[in-house]
Amino acid sequence: MARADLHVHSKYSRHASEWFLKKLGANESYSEPEEVFRLAKANGMRFVTLTDHNRIDGVMRLQAKYPGEVFTGMEATAYFPEDGCKVHVLIYGLDEKDFAEIERRRGSIYELRDYLKARDLAHAVAHATYSVNDRLRREHLEKLLLLFDVFEGINGSRDKMSNLGWMDILRQITPRQTEDLARRHGIEPTSRDPWVKGIIGGSDDHAGLFVGRTYTQAGASTPEEFLQQLKNKLTVPGGRHNNYQGFTFAIYKIAYDFSREKSTGLSRSLVHQLNELLFHSRQMPLADRLRLKAWKNGARQDKIQKALLDLVERIRRDAHRDIEDKLRVVYEQLAELADAFFRTLFESLEKSLRHLDAIELIKDLSSLIPGLFLSAPFFTSVGHMFQGRPLIGELKQSLFPNAPKAPKRILWFTDTHSDLNGVAETIKQTAWLAHQQRLPLQIAAAVDTRQEQSGQLPPIVLALPYIREMKLPYYEKVSLRIPSLLKAIDLIYRADPEEIIVSTPGPVGLVGLLAGRLLNIPCIGVYHTDFSAQIHSLSLDEDLGRFVENYIRWFYQACGQIKVSSQNYLRILRDRGYDASKLVHYRKGLDTGLFSPRPDARQRLKSRLTFPEAPLLLYVGRLSQDKNMDFMLGLYRRLMGQDQRLNLLIVGDGPYKEEMQAKTASWPGVRFLGRQPREELPWTYSAADVLVFPSTTDTFGMVVLEAQACGLPAVVSNQGGPQEIVRHQETGLVVPAGQTAAWEQALLEVLAWRKLQPERYLRMRQRARREVLDRYCPEDVLGGLLGGAFGAGAEPTPTAAAVRSQLERESELAGAAGGRLTHS
Predict the structure, then answer these.
(1) Which string of DSSP letters, residue by residue, matches 790-805?
(2) Which of 556, 481, 547, 552 is nearest to 513 (CA)?
(3) How far is it, in rounded angstroms, from Cα 289 to Cα 293?
(4) By three-state DSSP, how is residue 126 classified?
(5) Quick count: other Cβ atoms within 10 Å of Cβ 313?
(6) Averaged over 105-122, what is the pLDDT?
(7) φ, ψ dihedrals at 783, nearest 5°
(8) Where are the alpha helices (DSSP H) in 524-600?
(9) Rounded distance between C-alpha atoms, residue 644 and residue 821, angstroms
(10) Which of 298-302, 318-322, 751-755 is predicted most confidently?
(11) Considering only CA atoms, which of 608, 615, 622 is closest in space to residue 650?
(12) Which of 328, 341, 289 is nearest to 312 (CA)?
């Protein structure tokens, strides 16, 4: 089988299309035709061509020198005349007269196709799913499938998934689909069997780095036979797919060639020496080695220059390595360099946050720009690689609507994964259920897998390396970890997700948001926490409050969809100016097998904790002023002042804990249990008589749902999400926020039912349990957040079936509640 790289450029391709090269004023390629020929032959190509943009002078000269090994070629820029959409067509075996006619006709893709067909010139559509001028739509691809029979399947500058996705379509088209497309667009197909497509491969190399690494194979011994096989649709593509790193370094190589040609100041710089070693496998001259030594002596204080020097030295030692290995080494070193920069920056940023200094915070964020500049070319290259992905999906859906759909690969980003909070617990539940059902969900988190226990999450964690850990003011128990940008992007790229979920607007969430943009895939934000309201209640700095609110709104508005767990917060976010078309309500689920009534819970608690014989009020959650802790303590003191004998059990931790303990030190009925493991909470809920939850900033209130699942009545505020969980007068009471008298009356009312109307109180407990079973089953954990992403393949879990059967066991609940009614 003979091989030829059917898509390769030389210095005769003049006009750059990539933004970085445009800014430099560089050409698209600086490769000499002779060098392209040498590289192609060295990499096993039997035949050689050049496909310069709208030029043939370079390949004509090459063919004149190597007539039996070179055939002519070009990449013609053609247009759909109806809307100006650009398409690139590779054409082979043409002469100068053909070139003149092609130049005259390429303003219309239809006229060009007719000329190529009439002249029987070998041709193929290049990188069909790549939008050259951002006008390509599904309709254009459908028309191309009718107009042309041969397409580039493996383009060496495109990523593997894009290439394979396009070839998958080319190989599945049927006669019926072709007929439907012909009727829809009014275009006569180009051949008698237009559903049979020929597929070729080419490196699309512009920099001289990957010539001949991607190719086309055909049974041929002459250039003419090779092109005839192409026309007969008997070619096979093969070789290298690209990745974003290779694409980035190709751009760097062209910029380097530009600097050499223009003799810019870069030619004597450290960066120039690095490029010489990276792109040319030759020994460093003595003069340059002496210059390198001098640079080392002067770089002891300059971290960036020292890192570059280390990289130059490393590449110099490994000059014999293949270009792919060199690029990997350079990427790793650049990642370390960017990490060092960001690590220094976030040291300053942490100080600004600690002092709640909004002005300094903004200054720190603005100084991110140099570090982002180091990383930006790789990010833009990821975007380039995945530009055509949505188009491929849309075309597949149009052509094969009834094809079975595999579950989407989902990557879920979170800044919190092991904490005892609602966000972490929701993620854990979903992750375990997805893992049990073998669904392709991964959790992306900044995790140190060497030190942290993995038992809380299933083995589906994508551990993002991180460069720094920061404590937040008023959230000292919560650590924000700053991921390594380039290392994280590399891991995400390899994971190749089809959908992204972000649960938190912290550094990890930002990386998820960026990844969604770069990979050109849907990004769903889950609005778990009202940070804006919390900051306003915690801080007297109005500037900081506005800054946080604006940032949070920007973050979620950047998502394609915003999932909110309560109708109340849907209204709140609409009132704050969020795009209403993006806001979607989802129903949370709960492991109601774990959170269920425990009949002997009160006795178990009394065996472990001493407290006066009296009704037991319970609070579970974060101990912070934004949770209305002072209001709760004031309410308890008022009740005690009326000779009410009450216990108050406080479960949780937070920055306000020590102050609360100091305030209640002389109150005999108050107990602080600290943070409890998740499996211990059902016992605590079941032992209590009333849950008191005065928070007004919770978007949902997972604690309230857990308590209700255990049959515990709840008294909650009429502001925020918890009010939607509690059915007023049936499973608890919903009370106006901040009205002490109303809250006092509500608690006295529930306690009176418990003592004087035990049957009514028992029914309240039973209804609480039943409401959760009916409205928040475990299936909702997957269905609510992930929607139809996993298709119809997700089966109900064994836990769900077990939960349903618990409705038949309410006698246990009744017995447990009846036993507790005797405690007064």
Answers:
(1) TGGGPPPPHHHHHHHH
(2) 556
(3) 6
(4) coil
(5) 13
(6) 97
(7) -65, -40
(8) 531-538, 542-557, 567-575
(9) 17
(10) 751-755
(11) 622
(12) 289
